[in-house]
Prior knowledge:
- The chain is mainly α.
- Helices cover 76% and strands 3% of the residues.
- The longest helix is centred in the last third of the chain and has 28 residues, at 322-349.
Amino acid sequence: MSECLLAKYQSKIIFVLVFLLCPLSFFVPRSATWLLTIGGLLGIIICKSKVLKIVKLPFPLTALALIVWGGLSIFWSLDPRVSFMLFIRLFSIYILGISWYSLLKVQSQDDIQTTQFYLFLGIIVTFVLLIIDYLFSHPWQILTFKTSAKAFAPLALTISMAVWPATQWLHAQYNSFVVILFALSAVLFLLFIDCDTAPIGLMSGIFVGGLAYFSPKFVSRSGQFLTVILILSLPFAIHSLLTFERIHQINNFVHNFSHIHRLYVWQNVSEKIQQNWIKGYGLDTSRNEALGGEKMHWTMTTKEEELVPINSKAIPMHPHNAPLQWWLELGIIGALLGTLLNIQSLSFISHYKGITVFTGISLFVSSNFIAWVNLGFWQSWWLAALWILASIFISSLPKEESETHQN
């Protein structure tokens, strides 16, 4: 009886979950994990065996291979218990994500469009919350004793990805001009939050997506080529080129503390990768004191030419760069699987044209920019948000056409 009731109201539950994604992140930054858990469990109940069919598709299979390789790393990990716990968490998120996608796949195209509308509505409500917070001198930050970055960075990053599936509904109702206007408006709102990754990622998505709109095959193939070159060469290129002298030269033009700190961390991580690039140090070992716990004393120069010390761990929690994290923790196999995920994504999107390829490439670029400069790749809320939003995008595609391309 309860299963029939869930099946009857499944569309309405989806609408509520998607609507809450951005507004709820205003109050609880990492709430995307909760929403994916509810939606994923609903998908397991309603879709059952259909979930297993999706696992056999190329992208889900590669994602599963990356997680399984991470699980195998417990046999050589610096901290097998930590690696195993993250493996369980990643596998759980994977199953919930696949189940969420399965649930969206059985919805009608009208229901998917309505889902995109509720995502759009949730973004608008979030913008209103941000305006209220700004006009009343940030009451939520004061109440929670958090800076803007601590309070709203996950929200800003979520919005920078959520904009793209929402634009699919906008385009269906209006036109391309309204889509661009909405995306640019989102960039302006994100400038109010202390998280420069979000507006830059969104602008990058607009630019590259615009190029893909006119030449999808060229952008896709160029992206695949750059993906292979950049990911597979990144730790070695950083080790060779990002010397202390080069960081000091960059500091002459860039005086942001966190940016210069990030460059030092990447330099240090690249050195550690050189020492164990074949199999890595084990899943989630970036946080291990034995790997990156030594105290480092770097320096940076302000605009006023004042010397500021940077006292930090060699690796503060994680490398803030997905490819470096794959290399560091999972070695060359992890890097190759991460590369393959990017290639498969671009190959899939390139089969479409018009607003679809614009939206898909923009989502790909925005999410990759975030992964390359800001987050620890394994963060649950980030992966959950990505599953939710990418699933909405893919489910909006014509069913027969998308199934053909996935195979």
